[in-house]
Design brief:
The protein has 408 residues and is an alpha/beta fold. It has three domains: 113 residues, acylaminoacyl peptidase (de novo design (two linked rop proteins)), CATH 1.20.1440.110; 218 residues, Alpha/Beta hydrolase fold, catalytic domain (Rossmann fold), CATH 3.40.50; 64 residues, no CATH class. Helices cover 47% and strands 13% of the residues. The protein is built from 16 helices and eight strands. An eight-stranded mixed beta sheet has the order 1-2-4-3-5-6-7-8, sandwiched between helices. Helix 15 links the parallel strand 7 and strand 8. The chain is globular. The model has no long low-confidence stretch (mean pLDDT 96). It comes from Apodospora peruviana. GO terms for molecular function: hydrolase activity. Keywords: Hydrolase. This is Alpha/Beta hydrolase protein.
Length: 408
């Protein structure tokens, strides 16, 4: 089955599909995204910014004209879409950490998103949860208004990975969980959008330091069934979530969407042969110089340029050699997988652009504790993170999760 390409540039093709996939759960409109996709030039990060920034400003202006007291659903929908488009405008700008747009765009997306969640039937609540040496930014979405009398509900903790925001995973998984009667809390830790911007906190490998404070918060909430707290990790979050579950026994089950066994292996595989040779032979200075110089060459593939610049920014390091050393610690080997006690849903997308081949390694390491689900082109869910087919992935994830909860 030959895939239909939305753009000649593979990175832009994927990110446009990712934006389109938000439409299923109210985060985008298909025609709005397709309308601006044609204005994006291959390899041109500024054209990507311009296309989505213009769209975000247009949709926000429409939202601002609406009387939210009379038309709350219309206003909410428009603000959700504007927030998505502001996030997309920011996506390829991290190669210049001092670019003021990184702060202004994030402020704009946050304001738009907060206006939207204030108009939900049960408004979302932003939280700052104290952790060891940093703060976890979170948003809690309850199935019932606080203070009402009701039974405690299963609660799903949802986090993203290398480049995603908690606002995005609300659309990707949060709405699907709420539709099934579950509370949802989304969160961001070091390396992710708000902690990186506000605290200059780069990624850490020991992700239980992020998730455990969230669990501590949840078990104190009357609306939360403390025996039925689940964790979902998206993209590189497939590693982060399983790592956290290995050290946080109160997690009832975990979904790795998709399975990531070794982040370093994925980074190494994306290196061009000359860079891989320099790195493998221990020529750190030569690797650093060659990798950094390649970022300024127009012939360098967009996926590599973006991955390195995003990595430098999100891990808060200065060069690719430091980045590679940082990601070495991100593995389920060394006994980490052996510590996992809860059931784990492990997703696999057969055409994954970033972590192909890793989900079976997670399944092998976890054995009977893991359920491996492979989605293909026939499912429409073969791309990384199953973008474009989130309702397909959510059917598998939440049907499995429901069975786990029944046993609690």
């Amino acid at each position: 089955m030959a895939p239909f390409h939305l753009h000649a540039d593979p990175s832009f093709n994927y990110e446009i599909l990712r934006a389109l996939s938000m439409a299923r759960y109210g985060g985008a409109e298909v025609s709005e995204v397709l309308q601006v996709a044609g204005d994006i030039k291959p390899g041109d990060f500024e054209s990507y910014y311009n296309a989505f920034n213009d769209l975000a400003l247009h949709v926000k202006a429409q939202a601002d004209l609406l009387d939210s007291s009379k038309n709350p659903i219309s206003a909410r929908d428009a603000y959700f879409r504007a927030a998505t488009y502001f996030r997309n405008a920011d996506f390829f700008l991290h190669g210049h950490p001092n670019d003021p747009r990184l702060m202004t765009l994030w402020s704009q997306q946050t304001v738009a998103f907060d206006k939207a969640i204030a108009l939900l039937p049960v408004p979302g609540e932003r939280l700052v949860i104290k952790a060891d040496g940093f703060d976890v930014n979170a948003i809690f979405y309850r199935t019932e208004t606080p203070g009402t009398t009701g039974n405690p509900k299963p609660t799903i903790i949802v986090g993203s990975g290398f480049d995603g925001a908690q606002e995005e995973v609300y659309h990707a998984f949060g709405i699907a969980a709420l539709e099934r009667g579950y509370n949802v809390i989304t969160y961001e830790g070091p390396g992710q959008p708000l902690p990186r911007r506000e605290q200059e906190a780069g990624f850490i490998h020991d992700w239980e330091k992020v998730v455990t404070p969230v669990v501590d918060y949840l078990v104190q909430q009357p609306s939360v069934d403390a025996k039925r707290i689940a964790l979902i990790g998206w993209s590189m979050g497939g590693y982060l979530s399983v790592r956290a579950a290995a050290f946080e026994p109160r997690i009832a089950c975990t979904a790795a969407v998709d399975g990531v066994y070794d982040v370093f292996a994925a980074f190494r595989s994306m290196l061009a042969p000359n860079l891989r040779s320099l790195y493998d032979t221990g020529d750190a200075a030569g690797f650093k110089e060659a990798a950094m110089s390649s970022l300024d060459k127009p012939e360098t593939p967009t996926p590599f340029r973006w991955a390195i610049t995003q990595g430098l920014w999100s891990f808060n390091v200065h060069n690719p050699a430091e980045l590679m050393e940082k990601v070495k610690a991100m593995t389920l080997g060394g006994g980490v997988a052996d510590r996992v006690q809860c059931p784990v849903w492990v997703g696999e997308a057969v055409k994954d652009e970033f972590f192909r081949g890793q989900p079976p390694l997670v399944k092998e390491a976890l054995g009977d504790r893991a359920t491996l689900v492979t989605l293909t082109e026939d499912d429409g869910a073969s791309a990384h993170c199953h973008v474009g087919a989130l309702s397909v992935a959510n059917r598998h994830i939440f049907d499995w999760m429901g069975k786990v909860f029944e046993r609690k």
